[in-house]
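Deliverable D2.4 — example input (structure tokens):
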């Protein structure tokens, strides 16, 4: 075999599959598209910059979160696209054992997983604020936890959206979507 030939069989052994576990169900995760990744980078960069002095950390996927860990469930595992944590005592090198204060999911192939399954999990876990961003329609759905239930607000891709859980912090979606094209 020459040096230019790929080592396909051996290379696949090095790939760690991505998945999430909710309840007794495992969900395989495929690679997202470029619009998803562009939105992920733009939103993550804005949040990181605006929260630098807050003591909180903005983390982007892939990174394991165990939102029910404190309730004795080490099995449930998700990989939010973007999340913010303020309690560093629950942060390990490759996982977070607790409930992030703020989570964003960016819709891609398995839309119902983010819009139903994860929404219910995050509400039950006590995530203070959960955003779902639709890069195709440029719609931002903001769920704010009030009295144990999510109250939903919707915004367009032209809006600057405030984080309820971080007063004074906003995401400018004009900047997020400006280079996506159609």
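Example output (designed residues):
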């Amino acid at each position: 075999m020459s040096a230019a030939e790929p080592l396909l069989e051996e290379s696949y052994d090095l790939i760690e599959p991505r998945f999430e576990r909710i309840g007794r169900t495992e969900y395989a995760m495929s690679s997202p598209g470029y619009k998803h990744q562009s939105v992920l980078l733009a939103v993550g960069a804005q949040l990181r910059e605006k929260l630098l002095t807050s003591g909180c950390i903005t983390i982007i996927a892939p990174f394991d979160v165990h939102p029910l860990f404190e309730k004795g469930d080490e099995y449930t595992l998700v990989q939010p696209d973007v999340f913010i944590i303020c309690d560093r005592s629950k942060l390990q090198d490759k996982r977070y054992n607790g409930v992030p204060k703020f989570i964003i999911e960016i819709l891609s192939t398995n839309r119902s997983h983010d819009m139903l399954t994860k929404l219910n999990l995050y509400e039950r876990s006590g995530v203070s604020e959960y955003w779902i961003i639709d890069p195709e329609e440029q719609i931002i759905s903001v769920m704010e936890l009030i009295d144990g239930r999510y109250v939903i607000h919707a915004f367009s891709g032209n809006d600057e959206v405030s984080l309820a859980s971080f007063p004074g912090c906003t995401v400018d979606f004009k900047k997020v979507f400006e280079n996506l094209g159609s």
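The chain has a mean pLDDT of 89.
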